Structures are given as structure tokens and as C-alpha cells.
Amino acid sequence: MVVERKFIEDAMVMHEISKYLEKTLSRAGFSRVEIQKTPVITRITAYVTNPGRVIGRGGSTIDAITQEIKNRFKIDNPQISVAEVKNEVLEPRLVGRHIANALERGANARSLLHSTLKTIIENGALGAEIVATGKLAAKGAKAKQIKVRFGYIPKAGDTVKLVDEAHITSYPKYGAIGIRVRIVQPGTQFRDREVKKIEMPKALEAAK
């Protein structure tokens, strides 16, 4: 029971660190974080589009973030490294933010989701799914859901862990819209099947 409680507590702390970094590094184009805890140190790798903003002049910014994490979350020896995002189109959080911003500017939700899905697949993803839920039409319209999906996206079992996922909320003037983006990265290996690069269907090719 003690071991289970410690596992839960560690998971909660990791989640809080992730939320803290997402807020703190938003201007640096924060995408995701990987946290590996060992008996000696806690390795934290933040993936961003602009590493220079995280590091700061002479490492001042990253030093301040490291100290804040140490004090706020009671982490004895945190070691933070910064990695640059290789392809923004394949990062669910960045894709979700792009959709959220476009919806807030008044973009058509259905066209936006189809064109975004097309771009993700064009960049080599083995599968992708985008779901938008909320007030997707004019003032007074009922909340509804739009889902676009193509390729292989596992829904259950251990293989779900191989799917990158992010949840973002958009706030256009008619009401909040929840956005979920799931992407299977190029080259992902599944134990139960072989998934090859997929061909774009004509219906998706026409998306703009």
C-alpha cells in the first residue's frame, strides 16, 4: 500500500511539473516534457520551438526554472535540458494551439480540421485524429462535435501509450471549444501489427 501511494504521489508531482512548464515556457513554444526520476537525480527534458528563450543569457532563465522546480515541488536534484522540436506539425500540443488560435479568429471548424489532418499525414504520420467539441457554429447554436481521423490510431491496450496526445481549449466569442489531437509518429513500431506510411485519399487531398 505504501509503494502504491508513493507511485501515485510521484505521478501527481510529475503532472504538476508538466503543467508548470507548459505555462512558464508558453512563449518558447512549449510542446511536451519528458521526466525520468532516478534515486540520484530527476531528469527533465522540455521540448520547445525556441530553446534560446528557455536557456536565457548565460543560462540565467533555465537556472531560475530549475531552482523554482526544486523549491516548489521538493525535487532534490532536478536537471533540466532543452530540446528543439523537429517538426511542429507532428506535435499534438502545437497543432492544437494552431487550431485554437484559428477558431478564435473565426475560421470554419470543419475545413480547418480537415486541412490540418491533411498536413499531419503529408508530414509522414501513420495516423492522426482531431476532435473539436463545443460551440462550433454561430451564436445560439447547440454544442456539437466534429471528428476527423485517418490512418491507424489504437484505442485500447498498451499500444495507446505509443500515441502522442494533447488537449487544448479554444475560447472564441461564442463559447469554449475543447480540442483533442492524437498523432502516431512516423516510424512507430507496434508489436501486434506492421503499419506502413499511408496514402492520402482523394477526399483528404482536396482539403484546403
| Helix content, binned percent | 25-40%
List the helices and strands in order.
HEEHHEHHEEEEH
Name of the level-1 CATH class of the largest domain:
Alpha Beta
Secondary-structure content class: alpha+beta
- Lateral strand order in the biggest sheet: 5-4-7-6
**CATH architecture term of the largest domain:** 2-Layer Sandwich
Q: What is the average of the pLDDT values?
A: 88
Overall morphology: globular
Number of strands: 7
Query: Per DSSP, what share of the residues sits in E-state strands of 2 or more residues?
Result: 25-35%
Distance between the termini: 54 Å
CATH topology of the largest domain: the name is Ribosomal protein S3 C-terminal domain
Q: How many structural domains in the coordinates? A: 2
From the alpha carbons, calculate the radius of gyration and give it in angstroms.
19 Å
Number of helices: 6
Low-pLDDT runs of 5+ residues are none
Largest sheet: 4 strands, antiparallel
CATH superfamily of the largest domain: Ribosomal protein S3, C-terminal domain
